[in-house]
Amino acid sequence: MMRARGADSHPESWLRATDGGLYCVPGDFHVDPHRPAERAVITHGHADHARARNGKVLATPGTLAIMRARYGAEAWRESQALDHGETVRIGDVTVSLAPAGHVLGSAQAVLEYKGARVVISGDYKRRRDPTCPPFEPVACDVFVTEATFGLPVFRHPPDGEEVAKLLRSLETFPERTHLLGAYALGKAQRLIRLLREGGYDRPIHLHGAMGALCDLYEAQGVPLGPLRAVGDRDKKELAGEIVLCPPSALSDRWSRGFPDPLTVMASGWMRVRQRARQRNVELPLILSDHADWDELTRTLEDVGAPTVWVTHGREYALVHHARGRGFDAKALSLVGREEEDET
């Protein structure tokens, strides 16, 4: 529990929600700033958390590799890699990074100042992901949590069950190309690994937007098995194959020419049938890189912070739940997207 401290040591006095994002006053840095900042601690590589053109950037080696691949010379002016469990001083603040279980390189930012500890979890999930280390609960005084799927209706089924649906469809419709829409960073590579674990050892074919990040994952030690670029090949040859593409490509001109394509999308939002119907998704797979309702509420108990700040997503439902469980909870209402380009 939070110990009695002077007003200047309470996290609300030194960690502030600003127009640019969460700002740490004694360290003079932002965490996942919404616009370029002079100093930034970045939790992971998704574009709504990792912006280009920051001055000095601190992140895990995996996140820095992702930012470098996405932004090139515009990623930052100066960078510092910090592995999970290592610590560094920024001004008067001790900073460390703990695994978040979201995507490759994802981390929770752990800030300690004058005896108080704040954990900014970024985006996270609690279930196993074969492409990154699992989330680690860190005891703290204030826990900052997302709430992307912060409603009780969002309870994600086991990943293996969703992947099995795709494998059964391939057996049932061997004459149809299965166009699988998934976000290019994190979701695509996790799906590939889950398919491999499910026994699918055939080549998986990639839209042009997927190749670079799959190569990056391989270079970071995540084996993905045989992959093939669709490129300019004859699409008629891909009957009965899996073609992995960004969700936007499912309705794009690019999707034409495949043999009787069967549209698949992997997203936590596929729990909402109307979302699937709007995108003409024939086979919705409920699979997300964010925590569902049960994982969010369990994490509050596991971390045990007396104070909870809730960021983007279904903030007020989770705040209401947390207050009912005895937490001092509030919504930060930070600007930010929920699950980048999932649908």
TrEMBL record:
SMART domains: Lactamase_B (SM00849). Keywords: Exonuclease, Hydrolase, Ligase, Nuclease. GO terms for molecular function: exonuclease activity; ligase activity; RNA endonuclease activity. Residues 17-183 form the Metallo-beta-lactamase domain. InterPro entries: MBL (IPR050698), Metallo-B-lactamas (IPR001279), RibonucZ/Hydroxyglut_hydro (IPR036866), Xnuc_lig_assoc (IPR026360). Pfam families: Lactamase_B (PF00753). Its EC number is 3.1.-.-. This is Ligase-associated DNA damage response exonuclease. It comes from Marivibrio halodurans.
